[in-house]
Design a protein that fits this description.
The protein is of the alpha+beta class. Helices cover 37% and strands 27% of the residues. The chain has helices spanning 12-22, 36-40, 50-58, 63-68, 88-91, 102-115, 236-245, 249-254, 298-319, 323-350, 357-373, 375-386, and strands spanning 5-8, 28-31, 47-48, 70-72, 75-79, 82-86, 97-99, 119-121, 125-130, 138-143, 146-151, 154-157, 175-190, 199-202, 209-213, 219-226, 260-274, 277-278, 281-283, 289-290. Bound molecules: arabino-flavin-adenine dinucleotide and P-hydroxybenzoic acid. GO terms for molecular function: 4-hydroxybenzoate 3-monooxygenase activity; FAD binding.
Length: 390
């Protein structure tokens, strides 16, 4: 079999890239390790930058997003028993974010791909990348016990942190940067109305908490927990109690409790692999970088990479120019590192570290107090949160 581009991974970056390429007549095959149901069963991001929404519009899969997504013009920071709103739109000439779950983004992109009759091989095993350092790369995989080979022009490694693509690059050709955080996030989904009409990021001496949502009747909450904590140790009652202890009283009183239907613990890390291109292989999204979710950047960075790579591939196929694909890694990494910095900064400012102590807690509160009372400081937060220019 032959195609123009093999995309490894049917997450948001793979699906979005495939949809944009289909729009200019470039043929792709997506190889996905898991089942369609398993991919859609993952609960992850919830906040989309305006640039991500515009890309989904360009991919023709933003109709439900516009019908069901929630535009948000602000967020609140909670500390020292008080809530402080950051007016994102006022500070960024009217920009906003849209609250719409990654699961829905993935679902919309899958539906669009299937409606166009484009090929996605689910439950593809033993995916292996070959000869991507030459000009005739190919990918092999097995499906239902039968081995397959796909020859292609390029391979897009959209297979996440644990995928095969980054691991296929010779170690000597890759430089990685990593920071593990000494805690995780326990996340809960419940069919209850959100505690506030916007997101609340709480700094508390017991630990970080986040009030988010998926709709006006479905809430998404997180509390910081020990790195080695287990979901089984957290009954719903214990979760609701701990969440409300970390929130200012009026916000805690607005929390509607109810049975959780999803509960999971995610580790937090910052990770970047450089460069993001190796001959005919491009690393995209979580395959190349991971950020702690505190800055709501993971999914949006994946979209940012897709934007740069799509522009490069479009120039290659329509203008016979290699300038865009040559510049991909350097352009993508410039924006990646700014988002890695912002996510690291939000995480260090809002979480309780083992060595924070009383002095560290006061320093965090002083930084937050300065942030919410300084136009310059809150503008810096706002322009990063809504998404820096591409
Ligand atoms: P993904 O990991 O989403 O997709 C990669 C795909 O490749 C998967 O479907 C996988 O099954 C497949 N794959 C892997 N190995 C393969 C192989 N060998 N062969 C074929 N297919 C293979 N971001 C936020 O902004 N906010 C959040 O709150 C947030 N929470 C998160 C919670 C968790 C537990 C995790 C893991 C991530 C979270 N993220 C969050 C980040 C997340 O949203 C990612 O940024 C986003 O999924 C990136 O999309 P992709 O790059 O497509 O990678
Ligand atoms: C979410 O709704 O899952 C979410 C929102 C904002 C974040 C992280 C997660 O910073």
């Amino acid at each position: 079999m032959r195609t123009q581009i093999v995309i490894v991974g049917s997450g948001p970056s793979g699906l979005l890239l495939g949809q944009l390429l289909a729009g200019i007549g470039v043929e792709t095959v997506i190889l996905e390790r898991s089942s369609r149901e398993h991919v859609l069963g993952r609960v992850r991001a919830g906040v989309l930058e305006q640039g991500t929404v515009e890309l989904l519009e360009e991919a023709g899969s933003a109709a439900r997003l516009h019908a069901e997504g929630l535009p948000h013009s602000g967020i609140s920071l909670a500390f020292d028993g008080r809530l402080h709103r950051i007016d994102l739109s006022a500070l960024t000439d009217g920009k906003h974010v849209t609250v719409y779950g990654q699961t829905e983004v993935t679902h919309d992109l899958m539906d669009k791909r299937e409606a166009a009759g484009l090929v996605t091989v689910y439950e593809a095993s033993d995916v292996a990348l070959h000869d991507f350092d030459g000009d005739a790369p190919f990918v092999t995989y097995a499906k239902d016990g039968v081995s397959h080979r796909i020859d292609c022009d390029f391979i897009a490694g959209c297979d996440g942190y644990h995928g095969v693509s980054r691991k296929s690059v010779p170690e000597r050709a890759l430089k990685t940067f990593e920071r593990q955080y000494p805690f995780g996030w326990l996340g809960v989904l419940a069919e209850v109305p959100p505690a506030d009409h916007e997101l609340v990021y709480a700094n508390h001496e017991r630990g970080f908490a986040l009030c988010s949502m998926r709709s006006t009747h479905r809430s998404r909450y997180y509390v910081q927990c020990p790195q080695d904590d287990r979901v089984e140790a957290w009954s719903d009652d214990r979760f609701w109690d701990e969440l409300r202890r970390r929130l200012p009283e009026p916000t805690a009183a607005s929390v509607t409790i109810g049975p959780s239907f999803e509960k999971s613990i995610a580790p937090l890390r910052s990770f970047v692999a450089e460069p993001m291109r190796f001959g005919r292989l491009f690393l995209v999204g979580d395959a190349a970088h991971i950020v702690p979710p505190t800055g709501a950047k993971g999914l949006n960075l994946a979209a940012s990479d897709v934007r740069y790579l799509f522009a490069g591939l479009r120039d290659f196929y329509t203008e016979k120019s290699e300038a865009g694909i040559e510049a991909y890694s350097q352009k993508a990494l410039a924006r990646v590192w700014k988002a890695v910095r912002f996510s690291w900064w939000m995480t260090t400012m809002l979480h309780r570290f083992p060595d924070t102590g009383d002095f560290g807690q006061r320093i965090q509160e002083a930084e937050l107090d300065y942030l919410v009372h300084s136009c310059a400081a809150s503008t810096a937060l706002a322009e990063n949160y809504v998404g820096l220019p591409y």
